[in-house]
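Quiz preparation item.
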């Protein structure tokens, strides 16, 4: 089995005294592999069964250069304050990944109504492509609609399965995740910074679908979709190829008032995702600032 470095989104800017630039091993406390594997396994062994057998995938194999290209383009967007990652499906006839779950990344800006999509900047990472692929707003809208709309959409199937998992209680699946731009910046603590650093020895990358396990403070998030950024490393000691790091945000903030970044990650209050909507801020399907699919 390949050993992966699992860096849970979201990343938070660090200010660890004495940190060696670009050194993964200096980033702080390690996250137990059980937490990461539990989320991956909950999707791969249970949640994906909501979809017809053999029709979908658990991970998207992307290249490190393509991920660098994506994050560089996002960081170059004027007034960008973050990234919204939409679950989506490409149904283009003959497309290599037609009918499979994917993720569309959209730059956002801070507006009074929330973190608003800038639809001039929509991107997708295709399997093993050398660069990120730009999508028009119409294309992005269609792919998101393919995931969300209709009784037989993956979104509807996940919702029905969620009700069963929830013992008959109501369930509203996550449509998108929002990440602060600090997650992906080219400054120390951001993913782009470490992807570009030769000392981290990233060899390959996956975007892996996952699902929350039980969160003590707020059970509403249990079983909901999320994604994990997974990296294989080379040219490092064997014990460092299977490191799990959690670049996180406050669990208290996550549970009580949204996401409140913390400056250091030297405690155990881990939450390993972007802001999932739904169920945050509620289960009404209204995601402040979200624009896709277009009406």
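Solution:
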């Amino acid at each position: 089995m390949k050993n992966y470095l699992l860096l849970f989104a979201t990343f938070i800017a660090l200010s660890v005294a004495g940190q060696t630039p670009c050194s993964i091993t200096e980033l702080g406390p390690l996250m137990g592999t059980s937490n990461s594997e539990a989320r991956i396994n909950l999707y791969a062994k249970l949640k994906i069964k909501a979809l017809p057998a053999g029709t979908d995938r658990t991970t998207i194999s992307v290249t490190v250069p393509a991920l660098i290209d994506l994050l560089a383009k996002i960081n170059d967007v004027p007034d960008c304050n973050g990234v919204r990652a939409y679950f989506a499906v490409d149904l283009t006839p003959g497309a290599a990944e037609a009918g499979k779950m994917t993720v569309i990344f959209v730059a956002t800006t801070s507006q009074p109504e929330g973190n608003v999509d800038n639809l001039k900047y929509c991107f997708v990472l295709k399997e093993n492509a050398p660069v990120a692929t730009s999508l028009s707003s119409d294309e992005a809208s269609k792919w998101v609609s393919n995931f969300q709309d209709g009784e037989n959409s993956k979104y509807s199937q996940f919702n029905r399965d969620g009700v069963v998992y929830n013992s008959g209680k109501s369930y509203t699946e996550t449509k998108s995740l929002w990440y602060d731009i600090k997650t992906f910046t080219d400054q120390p603590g951001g993913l782009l910074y470490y992807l570009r650093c030769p000392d981290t020895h990233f060899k390959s990358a996956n975007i892996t679908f996952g699902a929350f396990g039980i969160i003590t403070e707020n059970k509403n998030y249990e079983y909901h979709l999320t994604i994990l950024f997974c990296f294989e490393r080379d040219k490092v000691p064997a014990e460092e190829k299977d490191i799990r790091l959690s670049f996180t945000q406050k669990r208290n903030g996550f549970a009580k008032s949204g996401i409140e970044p913390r400056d250091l990650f030297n405690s155990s209050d881990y939450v390993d995702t972007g802001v999932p909507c739904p169920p945050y801020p509620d289960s009404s399907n209204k995601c402040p600032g979200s624009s896709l699919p277009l009406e």
